[in-house]
Amino acid sequence: MATSADAVFSALAATSRVRRCHNPFFRQQLLKQLHDILRKNTSELKGSIKQDTGVSDVEATAEIAYTLNIVKEHYSSISPEKELEEEYRIAKGNNAQDHQIPYGVVYIEPRLDHTPLFSTISPISAAVAAGNCVVVKIENSLLNITTLLRNLLPQALEPDIFGIVSAAPETTSLGSVAQVYQTGHDSSKILSTQLMSPERKVVAIVDRTADLSSAAESLISARFAFGGTSPYAPDLVLVNEFVEKDFVNEVLRKAVRYFSTPSQHGNGSAEKSNRTGKASKISSRLKLLGGDKNWSLNILAQGDSGAVVKVSARSQHLVPLPPRTAEPILVVSTTSSLDHAIDLILNDSDEPLLAAYHFAAPSHAKYLSQSVSADVSFVNHIPLPLLLGPSAPAFRAFDLEKRYAKEHFTKGQPYFITSNDRRVVELEGVIGETTGSKKLNALLKSSTQEIKEKKRDEWIAIGFFEQGIFIGLGVYGIPLLACIGASIFFGVRFGLRKWAVL
């Protein structure tokens, strides 16, 4: 049950001060209770997810199963024996330079319009596993999942370590609280205590060296799975013009199942409303794309559940990329080369892409990964777990499976009892010495010795540009040399015959 934000934060702050959640056995108990309450209500959760988000029965089941496994993994990651050993390092005369402590209280604003269960439970379970109390914002709404989560979560997590609020708290209430924002916040202005999910474009590049069937399958799944609302669904696919026709044919052939498969959401007015609402959103987005001053639109295929379109630049100059979309619409455009695709992306924004998908031969994919700035890049595949939940928090270690790791909710607090490092011992040995002492002179002499330059291996790396040079030499150099050689041969023979006659 939601209560006032001030009361919730005050109660949880008191619990964090007594370090109740630092006990590994207590954390395991909380995670087991959370897993138990979720697994016992899978049918209700599945029904709510399907009705609220319009996903299929298979997708709702996959989200629930994956979420439950995340909780189990966090439970297994807690090792009372290891934590006991770390706690007594100082008592045994050992340093604890990697010692971490939880923030104490974590505030979470989950995204509930896409895989709502995973988006909510993933940060909660990670924060609890790290030893924090948790506050979750779940607004009053008509969504079934919000009502269900309001009822289930308080049954699993004790009131002095968990609370629900219906509105965002005042900034003064947050203080040193760790904060998770999955949508609606400017990720360019982030405090050290904040984990924000950025909202930026996702672009795929399909080179002429790619496996077109595999690329089409991966991109279709990423764009249309889970209603097409994943932040990691590709907003634009740049295809080399030499393979565009074959790639589009593969896409259309594989996209049929998303356009023609009957809805699995249930029967009656709710199902009809879901289909109508989705079709209306798709039509609105297509109208917006068609009105773009920089791109012309050609609809290749369209159904109630999605569309495949091709966009072409109206100008020969570089123009901004089409806008992001949260609808199941696969947008394809052609490029003349890898460098053309790279230039289009670099011209669009100074910010890195949220994700980049490169479908090409490994050597070409290496060049693309280095040239296209993105938070994360995937080569010749798009892993399904990526499509679950919000985008990974900016400026934090990327966790593909769980999105939020325990380390995201802890901070360093190292302890030292000894200084065994050689440089520290040397420095301590000269402090207090007089100028010109042997120890001081030896330290200075050692530090001023010239760095011995390491010799580089004598080999030539054959990369993308080198391959181009060699191909150019092969195409133009060999025929030219053959012509020169033939000219010399016939010229010499002609000369010898002429002088022989004379």
Can you walk me through this structure?
The structure is a single chain. This protein has 502 residues and is an alpha/beta fold. The protein folds into 2 domains: 5-197 and 404-412, Aldehyde Dehydrogenase, Chain A, domain 1, CATH 3.40.605.10; 202-387, Aldehyde Dehydrogenase, Chain A, domain 2 (3-Layer(aba) Sandwich), CATH 3.40.309.10. It contains 16 helices and 14 strands. It has helices at residues 5-17, 24-39, 42-53, 57-77, 80-87, 116-129, 144-156, 171-174, 212-224, 244-260, 269-290, 338-348, 362-371, 422-430, 438-447, 464-501, and strands spanning 100-102, 105-109, 133-137, 162-165, 178-181, 194-196, 202-206, 236-240, 295-303, 306-313, 329-335, 355-359, 377-379, 410-412. The strands form 3 sheets. The chain has a 7-stranded mixed β-sheet, with helices on both faces. The chain has a 5-stranded parallel β-sheet with strand order 4-3-2-5-6. It has a two-stranded antiparallel ribbon with strand order 1-14. Helix 7 links the parallel strand 3 (133-137) and strand 4 (162-165). The longest helix is centred in the last third of the chain and has 38 residues, at 464-501. Pfam families: Aldedh. The chain crosses the membrane at residues 469-492. One of its GO terms (molecular function) is oxidoreductase activity, acting on the aldehyde or oxo group of donors, NAD or NADP as acceptor. This is ALDH-like protein. InterPro entries: Ald_DH/histidinol_DH, Ald_DH_C, Ald_DH_N, Aldehyde_DH_dom.
Structural features:
single chain; Aldehyde Dehydrogenase, Chain A, domain 1; flat; Aldehyde Dehydrogenase, Chain A, domain 2; 2 domains; alpha/beta; 502 residues
